[in-house]
Structure formats: structure tokens, C-alpha cells
Specification:
CATH architecture of the largest domain: Alpha-Beta Barrel
Bound molecules: alpha-D-glucopyranose
CATH class of the largest domain: Alpha Beta
Number of strands: 21
Strand content: 15-25%
Number of helices: 17
CATH superfamily of the largest domain: Glycosidases
Number of domains: 2
Radius of gyration: 25 Å
Strand order of the largest sheet: 11-10-7-3-2-1-13-12
């Protein structure tokens, strides 16, 4: 055998080929795309989606009963936020057992029934993987805290204080106050990036890694199609626990502003992601990341140098475009599209004010909701919806501090009212409690449920819901929207965001009027590679249309059309 065969470079090249082969397992089309590249994902907040046993809190049987609705809407996979046993301090993000279901939501048998029904409806199940921390009631933490000699001691991050009554360093919790809590049993502090009831796991300990990886295998065996990875950038801490640099001013909780360079985005994260990806690839599964990034370079890193980390790192910079501004969206889309991975689009979730409120102008909110849907369903990449977004559900923020359920909303009141507003019950019909439950729900429904609900909107061809159905149907069947390249059009237009998607010589043009006045946009498609053309509408809002290569759009109007050479 030729010694040359085994040079390190060649070995590296061979392993890369093997990696790519693994990543290209089970393609769904000639382009080598995987199921998650064609799928539409939908986030379900289980407390608030559907209440099968009418106790005021949603549950798995409730979700199962609505899978038919989700299938008809055009959803291919649901990501369920944590439904594991939990003291519910952070409404499930404090997990006390990773391999079970909280009785409030049902049982493992209910889970299996939901997954079986999902199979029938072609809806895959994605679990939330709370990887950075457990609940303080998890058996690992209870053991860890019991004694310095506990075999579980090193599963969490314990340190002595700097001096009497002083935490080990100046790190601040995301939810307010020091990120360290003193535990009198052993006289040491433990680290918690989130609430004190959410102690951070010590990912430097191989036993932690093994136990947590086994959790993913356990759920894969149960039929889940992947995980949404919670708070990935907080997995590792500087081993020397250096103080973070202090910036001027205070944050909304009254704590010093710090630059989190020693407790966030440490390089170890990528090794964990690469290893998790290997297990995911063995199971044809997808890893979605809660990846808060400040730049495209940061986002790129989460795909992995060889696209061997997260398949779908969520692009939250997109949610930070805080007004309907074509130039800002253009910039953000172009950067994400060119980042080298498959873009992942999100406009709302359980931690962010609903897009209906963020972009609504008070007069055209439904039109704007349609516009935003048209935008992120027609870009190259995978969209992740948030439940109720398809109805134009709005935030219902608490009016009084004493009504707040999310603890961070009580600490931060009134600067931060917490996240109750975006977590209210799904609006199924105009009956009491929006048809979510016959019992008073855990959070009140907003008044808009009378008009914005599944039953009413299903009967109105101009509703937000019917628009979602149309665009989602188009997205599933139009190969240009599924595969095509993205190119920006009319980049100087301050009002209309437009772009072309092109695949195998066919093009779809999308024109979105982001202004409150009627607009016309003319397209010189010859320059983009298509010959002089006219536009055949695929989906358009009332009053929007094309005459040759010119599109007319009412305020916040949407036009999606096929470019036809005549
Ligand atoms: C993530 C979740 C959020 C939770 C936090 C702590 O950011 O999305 O809801 O509070 O992690 O687990």
C-alpha cells in the first residue's frame, strides 16, 4: 500500500468527504436538499396552544387534536418548547427530568400518540433541548449540592467566593442580579446564567456531555426529528472566571452593563455542536439553534466550518430590523443569504414581542402581517413560524405588575414586562377564552380574539390566515421558491422591497410595498438575466397587480408573480 495514501491532508480530505456524504443522507430532491430545507416549521408553546383536559393550561393531547389544522395550514414540523417535568419557574426551561413529560402536559404515552398522529399528518416533532442548565430540582443538582464530595459535584459550576459575601466574579444573570448564588450547605457559590433555579451544567465534564448526548439518542429512538438547542452560546465559561469588562450605565434590571466576553460564545461550544451533529446525522435529524448573534460572521460560525454544526441557526438579526425599512431588510437578507449555510428565518417567538405589534402601524396591521409572511416565506431558506402568527395574533402585555407570570417581568417592571404578552392562548374561535379552554386560561386572551381566530378567519378569503394558507401552499409547490437563488431588485427603492428568485431559467418576482401609500415599481428584468418579460400573478393582495414589467401596489400590498417571457 502506498504510504502517500495516509498523509494527514488526505485523511482530512477523506473525512470531509465522509462528512458531506453523511450530511447528504436521504435527499428529497435532485439538488441534494434535506427534508428540513423544504419544511415549514411551527413553534408550539404547549402551555398556550390547546387545552385537551380543560384545566387552563395546554397539553399534548391538545396539540394532537390540532395536528390536522397544522397539516392543512402547510406545516411540516412542530418545535414544542419544553414539555418535560419542570417546576415551571421559567415555564419549562427549568427541566427536572429530560426523559419524561410533565404531568401537566400528559404522559409519554400521550407523546407517543402525538408522534404517531404526526406521522399520519406528515408533521415531524422537534423537541426543545435545554442544554445549558437544568432545574435546581433535577436529581443531578440535588446530588451536586449535597456535598463537595458528591460524584455529581463537578456536573455544575461551583466556586468559592472572592471574599466573604462576595461572589466569585462580576458576571450578571440574563434575568437580573449576580449570576452566582451562595449555597450554605457547602459554603460555595454556583453559577446560573439564567434564574437561580436554573444552575448551569459544567460542559467541561465529559460525564455531563455523555449524559446530555444520551438524552438526544433517547428521544431519537422515540421518533423525534431533531432538536431546537436552547441558549447555545452560554454553554462554556472562562476557566479562570475573569471579570467581564464593565461598560458605562446600568441595564434594565439596574445591574451594571457588562461585555459578556468571558461567559458567552466560548470556542468549546463548536466542538459540542459538531459532536451533536454527528448524532443528529445518524438519525436524519435537524439541529435548530437559538443563536443570538450580532454579526453575520458570528452566525456563520454556527453552521460550522464544514457545515458540520447547526443546520438551522436562527437568524435573530432579522427580528432586530425594527421597522418596515426596505434598505435594512435588503442588507440583512443579502448578508444572511450569502453566509454560506441554509438561511433560517424567524419573525416572532416566545421571547420576542409578536411581529404583529412590532411592525403594525395601528391602521393596516393585518396587511402588514401578510406582508411579513410573504417576505419570509419567499426567501431562500427555512421559515420557523410562531403559533398564532398566522391569525395576526397580538401581544397582550400585563397591565399591572401583580398580574405578571414571567418572573423576569416582575424583576424588570416596568422597563421589562416579561414575556407573558407573546405567550397568550391560541385563538381558535370567538367562544369564551378563544376556544382554548373552558377553564380560565393561565394567561388572558387579548380582546382581538373576537375577530382574529381560526374559525372566523377560515370563512374570510381576505383574512391573514387565508393569506398564510395561500403563500404556504405556493411555497410547497413552486420549485423556484424552494430552490431558487436570491437576487435583490431595484435596490434604490426606499418603499418597495423586491427580489427575484431564479431556478433553472424560471423566475419568481416578489414585490412588497413597505410604505403606507400606493407605489408603482418597474422592473428591468433583462439586466437580471431574464428576457423582457411580463409578470403572471401567483399570489397578490387585493389591488396589487402587474402590467407588463410594472407592478402596482396599494399601501403594504404584496405581489408575487412568475416572470413570463413573451
Ligand atoms: C432561552 C429560551 C427562554 C428561556 C431561556 C432560559 O432563551 O428561549 O425562553 O427563558 O432560554 O432557558
Amino acid at each position: 500500500m502506498n504510504r502517500f495514501l495516509f498523509t494527514p491532508t488526505l485523511l482530512l480530505a477523506l473525512s470531509l468527504v465522509a462528512l458531506q456524504a453523511a450530511a447528504q443522507k436521504n435527499p428529497v430532491d435532485a439538488e441534494g436538499h434535506q427534508w428540513w430545507q423544504h419544511a415549514v416549521f411551527y413553534e408550539v408553546y404547549p402551555r398556550s396552544f390547546a387545552d385537551g383536559n380543560n384545566d387552563g393550561v395546554g397539553d399534548l393531547n391538545g396539540i394532537t387534536s390540532k395536528l390536522g389544522y397544522l397539516h392543512d395550514l402547510g406545516v411540516d414540523a412542530i418545535w414544542i418548547t419544553p414539555c418535560y417535568p419542570s417546576p415551571q419557574v421559567d415555564f419549562g426551561y427549568d427541566v427536572s427530568d429530560y426523559e419524561n413529560i410533565d404531568p401537566m402536559y400528559g404522559t409519554l404515552a400521550d407523546f407517543d400518540r402525538m408522534a404517531a398522529e404526526g406521522k399520519k399528518q406528515n408533521i415531524r416533532i422537534i423537541m426543545d433541548y435545554v442544554i445549558n442548565h437544568t432545574s435546581d430540582k433535577h436529581k443531578w443538582f440535588i446530588a451536586s449540592k449535597s456535598s463537595k464530595k458528591s460524584p455529581y459535584r463537578n456536573w455544575y459550576v461551583w466556586r468559592d467566593g472572592k471574599a466573604p459575601n462576595q461572589p466569585p466574579n462580576n458576571w450578571i444573570s440574563e434575568f437580573g442580579g449576580s449570576a452566582w448564588k451562595f449555597d450554605p450547605t457547602t459554603g460555595q457559590y454556583y453559577y446560573h446564567y439564567f434564574y437561580a433555579e436554573q444552575p448551569d451544567l459544567n460542559w467541561n465534564n465529559p460525564a455531563v456531555e455523555k449524559a446530555m448526548f444520551d438524552v438526544t439518542r433517547w428521544w431519537y429512538k422515540r421518533g423525534v426529528a431533531g432538536f431546537r438547542l436552547d441558549a447555545v452560546d452560554t454553554l462554556f465559561e472562562d476557566p479562570d472566571l475573569r471579570d467581564n469588562p464593565v461598560l458605562p450605565g446600568k441595564n434594565k434590571f439596574g445591574d451594571p452593563n457588562t461585555q459578556e466576553i468571558y461567559n458567552k460564545k466560548l470556542p468549546g461550544v463548536h466542538e459540542v455542536l459538531q459532536n451533536l451533529r454527528k448524532v443528529a446525522d445518524e438519525n436524519d435529524a435537524v439541529l435548530i439553534g437559538e443563536t443570538w448573534t450580532k454579526s453575520i460572521d458570528e452566525l456563520k460560525k454556527y453552521y460550522g466550518e464544514h457545515n458540520n454544526e447547526l443546520q438551522l441557526p436562527m437568524d435573530f438579526m432579522f427580528t432586530r430590523v425594527d421597522k418596515l425599512s426596505p434598505p435594512e431588510f435588503r442588507r440583512q437578507i443579502a448578508a444572511a443569504d450569502a453566509a454560506g449555510g441554509w438561511p433560517t428565518w424567524v419573525i416572532s417567538n416566545h421571547d420576542i414581542e409578536r411581529s404583529y405589534n412590532r411592525y403594525g402601524d395601528g391602521a393596516h396591521n393585518d396587511d402588514i402581517a401578510k406582508l411579513m409572511a410573504a417576505l419570509y416565506f419567499t426567501l431562500r431558506g427555512t421559515p420557523i413560524m410562531y403559533y398564532g402568527e398566522e391569525l395576526g395574533m397580538e401581544n397582550n402585555d400585563p397591565k399591572r405588575k401583580e398580574d405578571v407570570k414571567d418572573p423576569k417581568g416582575r424583576t424588570g417592571w416596568p422597563a421589562d414586562k416579561g414575556r407573558d404578552g407573546e405567550r397568550t392562548p391560541m385563538q381558535w374561535n370567538d367562544a369564551e377564552n378563544a376556544g382554548f379552554s373552558t377553564h380560565e386560561p393561565w394567561l388572558p386572551v387579548p380582546p382581538s380574539y373576537k375577530t382574529h381566530n381560526v374559525a372566523a378567519e377560515s370563512k374570510d378569503p381576505n383574512s391573514v390566515l387565508e393569506f398564510y394558507r395561500k403563500v404556504l401552499a405556493l411555497r410547497h409547490t413552486n420549485s423556484v421558491l424552494l430552490e431558487g437563488n436570491y437576487s435583490a431588485l431595484n435596490e434604490e427603492d426606499p418603499n418597495v422591497l423586491s427580489y427575484l428568485r431564479t431556478y433553472k431559467g424560471n423566475s419568481v418576482l416578489v414585490a412588497l410595498n413597505m410604505s403606507g401609500s400606493a407605489q408603482k415599481a418597474s422592473f428591468h428584468l433583462g439586466a437580471q438575466g431574464a428576457s423582457p418579460a411580463s409578470l403572471d400573478p401567483l399570489v397578490a393582495t387585493p389591488g396589487a397587480g402587474a402590467n407588463g414589467p410594472e407592478v402596482t401596489l396599494p399601501a403594504f400590498g404584496v405581489f408575487i408573480g412568475e416572470v413570463a417571457s413573451r
